[in-house]
Specification:
2 copies of one chain form a homodimer. Chain A has helices at 12-16, 26-39, 68-75, 118-130, 147-159, 176-189, 206-215, 237-243, 252-266, 275-282, 288-294, 302-313, and strands spanning 7-10, 43-48, 83-89, 108-113, 134-139, 164-169, 194-199, 220-223. Chain A is an alpha/beta fold and 315 residues long. In chain A, helix 7 (206-215) links the parallel strand 7 (194-199) and strand 8. The longest helix of chain A is centred in the last third of the chain and has 15 residues, at 252-266. At the A-B interface, helix 7, helix 8, helix 9, helix 10 and helix 12 of A face helix 7, helix 8, helix 9, helix 10 and helix 12 of B.
Amino acid sequence: MYRKEIKVLDCTVRDGGLMNKWMFSDEFVKAVYKACVESGIDYMEIGYKSNTKSFSPKEYGKWRFCDEKAMAEIVGKNDTNLKLSAMADIGRIEPDDILPKSESLLDMIRVACYVNQIDKAIWLAEHCMDKGYEATINLMAVSTVMERDLNEALEDLNKSKVPVVYLVDSYGSMYCEQVELLVNKYRERLPGKTLGVHMHNNMQLAFSNTITGIIQNCNMLDATILGIGRGAGNCPLEVLLSFLKNPKFKLRPIYKVIQEHLIPLQKEIDWGYHIPYLITGAMNQHPRSAMKWMDSENKEDLVSFFNYMMDQRDF
Amino acid sequence: MYRKEIKVLDCTVRDGGLMNKWMFSDEFVKAVYKACVESGIDYMEIGYKSNTKSFSPKEYGKWRFCDEKAMAEIVGKNDTNLKLSAMADIGRIEPDDILPKSESLLDMIRVACYVNQIDKAIWLAEHCMDKGYEATINLMAVSTVMERDLNEALEDLNKSKVPVVYLVDSYGSMYCEQVELLVNKYRERLPGKTLGVHMHNNMQLAFSNTITGIIQNCNMLDATILGIGRGAGNCPLEVLLSFLKNPKFKLRPIYKVIQEHLIPLQKEIDWGYHIPYLITGAMNQHPRSAMKWMDSENKEDLVSFFNYMMDQRDF
């Protein structure tokens, strides 16, 4: 019943780190790595690749940078079937920050960009491929991109060497019919490329939109353990694995790391379904206002947040 | 953009009461009623209609019984556009427990049954209609019913006078393709009847399955405020209203009752997404083992619950 082409990518540390500036203990990251290896996950995205000119190491944890030394302390030589990935943001990394593949523990670099950055993103992704890595492009915030601009970006992507392109629901604002339309557009305009999905859970649709992606032949699926991630979080890895029928995936290691590490972490970081995230998602807005509200002393005043967002819309 | 035939039914008190034996304060039930009236909800299901031979009023709160006096204390004469509903379980109510409509605050009685009880359910629902009520039949646990038995039940329903039939995902184990197939089967075999959906959230699919119902022309939609309900809970009313485009629905009153009543209640009752509920849902099992586990001192030992459920399956 399973489709062997499907690959699952865990981005627990990379996307979860958006909630705590990547200040995870080594013990936590090691436990996530071990769970991914044991459960048969295909890729683990361990953080962002960026340089210390863009972010201060005093303010951000090591998974904002993904130094080789830091990675080696977690994974040794990574003598496993699990591939390692890092995400690169356009403008926060220099070409020379990418080492030749032979000198790196990373197998894949995913380039995240907004639609106006697509040319830079293609350049960077192809640069990574030239250095020996697998590469993808993750086109963010597509729910706010005008049709003509998206078509042009897809035309550029189609001409590129980049083999994998992701549909990303950055604001958690999409539902199945929108995902279906966009995936079909991507597929028609990117013949021969592999498609992926990265969904957010503001409207409790991250898993369901991932299923729509599966039905529409997307084969790279992003998820995080217990759904940890920015704001409302992501498609939960344990729900996705419960659904996929590939016998190579094991659930017990994931439940173990949830019990021992994610549930304790949930007491410190408040990701997941909360009304402010629902409100920004339903309004197709970046979650930053909701995150700010959730960090304030007004956190529990939902009506005022709703009023505030409605007022904003009037200007 | 909206479909005027769609009716939303709030079952916060009825389904939520499965978690606290309907021991809600009058203040809570009044606040839910007020929110439903102000937000333009079509129906509020205030509890179960059952008799004191089946349940002791010492052990169960008043919304297990829905006496007229108790309802009047909350809604007065209910001089609003909100219709009131109660659910009746086969075998826990006598025909004479149903008063003539003229003597009751209830507008609708929904009869819940398992497939083997379909004949009794049709009798009871038609009996309620004869007494002047709207009536529906909610066929539970359909994810474990054999195809032939379901077809026969639908044949009986088709011959009945009952105008509304619900697809119920009691175990929270369905995803979109299964919902689509079943709704299509119901529609083909029940021409002229209105279809409804009642979904549970074990796999975080309650809202998404409700969307599938909408797309497939189901017009009665169940939801509960903040998703309160048995185990993983239901489709959250606030997400559903954020999605529906009917201008008659207002969100602010729902956020108000969430802030003032549901979030405080969440500190006492642990409904919502929890791994034990995911495990029973993914296994297409009744949530009772998960609820028992969540009530025990082993609550946080997820791996042991997974092992326990796997062992059960081997016998």
